[in-house]
Amino acid sequence: KIIPEEFTFFLRGGVVLDRKARGANPCNEWLSEEAWDNISELDKLNQVFAGFSSAFEQQSSEWQEWYQSDMKGGEPPEKLDLPGELLSQGSDYEKKFRKMMIVRCLRPDRVNYAVTNYVSSIMGEQYVQPPSFDLSETFNASKTFMPVIFVLSPGSDPTQMLNDLARERKIKLAQVALGQGQAPIAERLFTEGVRDGNWVLLANCHLSIRWLPVLENMVMALRERKDVHPGFRLWLSSDPTPKFPIALLQSSIKITTEPPRGLRSIMQRMYNFIPEDKFNKMDSKKPQSDALCNKPIAYKSLLFALTFFHAVLVERKKFLTLGWNIPYAFNDSDFLVCDNLLRYYLNEQDQMPLEALKYLIAQALYGGRVTDEIDRRLLGVYIEQYFTMSTISVKNFHLSQDRTHYRVPVPAKYDSYINYIKTLPPPGGDPPEAFGQHPNADITMQQEGAKLLLDTVMSLQPRSSGGEGSSSEDFVLNLAKQLEDRVPPLFNLEKVEKKFAHDQSPLKTVLLQEIERYNVILALVEKSLKDLQMGIKGLIVISADLEVVFDCLLQNKVPPSWKSGYYSLKPLASWMTDLIERIKQFAVWIAKGAPKVFWLSGFTFPNGFLTALLQTSARANGVPIDSLGWEFLVSKEEEKAIQVPAKDGAYIKGFFLEGAQWDLENWHLEEPMPMQLYAQMPIINFKPIDQKKVKEKGFYSCPCYRYPIRTGTRENPSYVLNVRLKLPPAAPGFLKGTSDFWIKRGTALLLSLAT
User: Fold this and answer.
1) What percent of the chain has pLDDT over 70?
2) Which end of the chain is less crowded, N or C, counting CB atoms within 10 A of the terminal residue's CB?
3) What share of the chain is helix, strand, coil (3-state, %, to 5)?
4) What are phi and psi of 444, to 5 degrees?
């Protein structure tokens, strides 16, 4: 029912190696270059789509309405009919799939929804609705020789469910958490369980990988044994790991449970830990020794704020890099310890100990998990917003920018808090404003979800066609030849060293180091492509490394070995174009001297270049380099208008703002437009100045990263430096004029994108 080349295009998208040959994007005001790449390539796919790009251009206003329908309060694009009649031919199945292809081309953030609609309409609703989880049904399906494996996900713990089921069936549950030295205990419990009919839970199997083959043999032997008690059951829990024994995995029932999602579900779960009877005893006119707190009004308000604080921290990770630089596994114990701390301080202190509580909760307890300084800054912003005297004294104090929900209820009985939490938006319905985020943050999250889905399905595909009438080998062979033709020649390092022999500036060192690194990359890429072509033709044996290169080219991905010089998230076609531009910057530098405007993204090690600028200034002014800082002057001139280099420091381009845009009229940070995930930043003059003269007030200290994964790796750290950008004018109640507003937005500068 699905035409193979259309399915392949849906997974891979359009691959354009040279956008200059593609033709200009006629709708660049609202349509991205990546979307036009897809449309241009779709036009060439088969007869059904022939002429699609020209028809799209002629009906651009109708397509814009379709593209932006949900932004204007209408139905999302996947639920609307497509403009024009070009795609009206074919069966109903084919029309529905081709509509999904258009959604993939233009609105990748809606792909998951489009796929859900397609599967539901073609196969049935039961294939898109997750079945209700019932552990007793799992037990009924299990056998003595068939273990049940809980595949753990962050924040989930099946132990309590299993304890409840064992208690309900009046069966003894013996359990041990695996780890160093726990294997003998696990073997003893296993033996006793087989003999006496107990249930045995071996938790965290991923921590005892070396012992698991022993467990595998013990389980496999159960099928032949006649002395196994019929009541015996083995339960295992493990994080996903490729080292788990295959035979044990195949002979088991595998189940996974997701932690509660959405602010409402998490807050309900946290309140379930609070003893209702002791909570209500705080309202008694007579002092109760077992009441939770002797300051009930303050405790109830701050407890609700703490619950919301915990829920926001846990759920914020759904925004990926806009949420946390590093995803942290905040769990129930973090909340429970903070609740105990809150009660203790309120009971023991006469004055309201807010400062001590804020420090201990945000910096010591939750902050103890946080290793990134930017993430720690965010924690401080949240705790300062939620833990204030206004939280206690102001009726229905707002905890978020969403003015409809998330208010601190008036102190009352336990049930009133539960009932209020039930009125909050359902899971999946939390507005981004509840986290201090812009609505665009949801789009970023959905695009990454779609990318994960398509990549996963693509990885499961056999090596079939790369296009109509061609095998995967033909497709990769043709692509490798095109790429090889575009690889720039290596730099003549000896010639460059001679030309700059009398230049003693730090920038000369940076230039030589950069071209030396790029020579390694260029040589590796060229050799890989030549060897791959020879291997496909049968002239040499295709090694394991070449197999990886083959698979990556087939999926429009950059082979991992090519990223050794600098890390990039770009797809293959964009990566090659980017590499050519990087080489071009240094070729012009060698031929004509240092550029007037440096493209910082083109350096494999941007920090080395920035340090060289500071060294140059320190030598010129006779001051220690560690006494210098940066002043960031956002230039109002276009690159073509800059005729001379910067007097101090350097003009630098190549920045993209994520989570904001630059107001070109008022020259300060501003909210992004709908669907504007990244905004080009004007040229910035990086000017070295005395650190004592650095101005902080009225500026947002904006972190700058080399690529969108902000954590980076040990070998390729992503963080570069913090750039101070001007804030909008401060005014009472005007949140955009504060740094806290942009910190919650996750606003950052990026030197390269994933497109």
Assistant:
1) 97
2) N
3) 50, 10, 35
4) -60, -45
Q: Which residue has the tokens 């040229």?
A: 683
Task: State yes or no: pLDDT of 107 exceeds 70.
Answer: yes
- Cβ burial of 326 (10 Å; 0-12, 13-18, 19+) is middle
Measured between its terminal Cα atoms, the distance across the chain in Å is 31
What contacts 35, CB < 8 A, 6 or more positions away? 105, 106
Contacts 24+ apart (CB under 8 A), 68-76: 68/30, 68/674, 68/675, 71/674, 71/675, 76/110, 76/113
Amino acid at 561: S
Q: Which two tokens stand for residue 569?
A: 């998230």
Q: Determine the 3-state secondary structure of 368 from DSSP.
A: helix
Alpha carbon of 245 to those of 210, 224, 252, 590: distances in Å? 10, 20, 11, 56
Amino acid 242: pLDDT: 87
Rounded Cα–Cα distance for residues 276 and 258 (Å): 26
- Taking alpha carbons only, the member of 679, 660, 655, 640 closest to residue 726 is 660
**Which stretch of DSSP H or E encloses residue 74?**
none
pTM for the whole structure: 0.85
Instruction: List the Cα angle 435/438/440 in 5-degree steps.
Output: 125
How far is residue 260 from each of residues 35, 157, 269, 274, 414, measured CA to CA in Å? 35, 11, 8, 17, 21
Phi, then psi, of 607 in degrees rounded to 5: -65, -30
For 336-341, the CB contacts below 8 A with 24+ separation are 336/273, 337/365, 338/306, 338/310, 338/365, 338/366, 339/273, 339/274, 339/303, 339/306, 341/365
Structure tokens that stand for 424 in this block: 């909050």
Whether the predicted pLDDT of 260 surpasses 80: no
Q: How many CA atoms lie within 13 A of 637 on its CB side?
A: 14
Distance CA 233, CA 173 (A): 9
Q: What is the mean pLDDT of the chain?
A: 90
Instruction: Tell me the Ramachandran region of residue 746: left when phi exceeds 0, alpha when psi lies from -120 to 50, beta otherwise.
Output: left
CA dihedral (184, 189, 195, 199) positive or negative: negative
Euclidean distance between CA atoms 687 and 749, whole angstroms: 18
**Residues facing 653 on adjacent strands:** 599
